[in-house]
């Protein structure tokens, strides 16, 4: 087994954590050699929710590593403990499901070159600077809230207009954000919560992505990325959102569809789902004003890290994937037909 390991790079790429160091609300990435950074409270949470047993953790990682080396020896993927733990935690330490998730993770990159080719923060600086998405800072006090509540990804949907740049650039920025968010172990255990503000979203924004693009985005988030999405909170949604959700819902698994919560303009409803301590003043919270620039600085400061991670040869070259692989041959014509029907629904709601 040692000889096999020598033929594959098992170490994490060097990470410059200085960019995130200036934002004490975002933890630095773990070191290349695995050392558990979870608090006792999160260790307990991982045991209860993810079936993660600290005494078996490295044994489970080795089991997944052995599966990869045996079943996909040509797969150029990271095999270090910290990386593989992401997939085990996302699939509650089920080896087979974690293996499938890892393959989906790499297959998504191959199937969607518009998103993953030359993927680095500088190529989506216009999206980040615009404030289409940001990550809300966790509360800094010594209270327990900051360690047990999920990280909140905020989407300010009206910031994007179809004439400004292609929607796929938003997907690129979103993926980079998820890659950065999943590095700390606490996010792997707590997951993330999405807060999407649809204030001022009109027909042009709602109808632009379409089912074909929506299906790919949902496929990546549900089946191709090792992160737990605990809830999707929609705030200030217009009537047209019924049509938007009609595009998305057919591709959602039942459990994920149930995690969508529509609040309208009711902040009290939002506060029942997201603690006020993590919400900015704009949403009746106590975390100060909404800062749309800090996350941009975090990602742009990690340019070299993402070059190492994404701007490399295709990891699937020479790999034979199972027939049930994610993203295999979507029926584009069928999607176009369904889009025409859904577009009429959008106009009706609008």
From TrEMBL:
CDD domains: SEC14
GO MF term set: phosphatidylinositol bisphosphate binding
Domain CRAL-TRIO: 120-291
Pfam families the record matches: CRAL_TRIO, CRAL_TRIO_N
Gene3D superfamilies: Alpha-tocopherol transfer, CRAL-TRIO lipid binding domain, N-terminal domain of phosphatidylinositol transfer protein sec14p
Alphabetical list of InterPro entries matching this protein: CRAL-TRIO_dom, CRAL-TRIO_dom_sf, CRAL/TRIO_N_dom, CRAL/TRIO_N_dom_sf
Protein name: CRAL-TRIO domain-containing protein
